[in-house]
Write a structure and sequence with these properties.
Length: 155
């Protein structure tokens, strides 16, 4: 039996009917058409689906949609300001940290939580913050470089 869910996604209020077993990732991608969070492992092991729920990073594949009632969800799409990329998004482009791009939104969202809490993280703190995200294309150096550069841009 479907239930009504009220959520704020990227600053826009939504009231949608969801199945009790629907994940936040299912709702975002299939019902709202928000494709930034990617379906990777579906077990919380890769971080491709990372979003912010009330400012904290979570794997959307592991959160039942019903648990985010009346909460604010931010996806990578919600970071842009008009046509202007968020400094994290721009830093990923500038530092070649996107590679194939499949995991990029997850890394950016994990980094966003870090930079919201710590405007001047060390490289070790950056690595710790993104430890729950996997990339199969790179050795993570460019990703860490991008986050470090973005920290100075958002300070």
């Amino acid at each position: 039996m479907k239930q009504l869910l009220n959520i704020d996604v990227n600053g826009e209020a939504h009231e949608i009917a969801v199945e009790p077993y629907a994940t936040l990732l299912d709702v975002l991608r299939e019902q709202l058409g928000i494709t930034g969070p990617k379906r990777g492992c579906d077990t919380g092991g890769c971080g491709c689906c990372t979003v912010l729920i009330n400012g904290r990073s979570h794997y959307a594949c592991m959160a039942y949609a019903s648990t985010v009632q009346d909460k604010a969800i931010t996806t990578v799409e919600g970071l842009v300001n008009g046509a202007e990329l968020h400094p994290l998004q721009q830093a990923f482009v500038d530092h070649g940290a996107v590679q194939c791009g499949y995991c990029s939104s997850g890394f950016i969202m994990a980094a966003k939580e870090l930079l919201d809490k710590n405007r001047n993280p060390t490289r070790a703190e950056i690595r710790q913050a993104i430890a729950g995200n996997l990339c199969r294309c790179t050795g993570y150096t460019k990703i860490v470089d991008a986050i470090e550069a973005a920290a100075t841009a958002v300070s």
